[in-house]
Amino acid sequence: MLRYLPFLLVLALWIYAFVDCLNTPEEEVRHLPKVAWVIIILLFGEVLVGPVAWLITGRVRRAPAGGSTPSPWHRGSAGRWVAPDDNPEFLRSLDSSVDKSPDKDDPKGD
Predict the structure, then answer these.
(1) Which of 67, 65, 51 is nearest to 19 (CA)?
(2) pLDDT tens, residue by residue, 34-65
(3) Distance between CA 110 and CA 101 in Å, rounded?
(4) pTM (predicted TM-score)
């Protein structure tokens, strides 16, 4: 089974590059027309030249919408998560909910 792995990886990269090229709008394709990129990917896909060339130079790559890094953990502290026990708004909401709701287990209502 392990001897088929390189073939499957090459095939997966070939298919990914081909589908990515077909789904890319014409105005985002660089250096060559889209039809030329499709032909290059199909002709040179078995030796990885076509798919690798497409992935490196063929398409305009944009930064993610939320920032320049792919992970939200690397971004600034503006959207940083705060634990509930450190969040003053959450603690205030607990205080107000305790004051408003009577204890159901207390028969006196105290």
Answers:
(1) 51
(2) 899 999 988 887 788 888 888 888 877 766 56
(3) 11
(4) 0.53
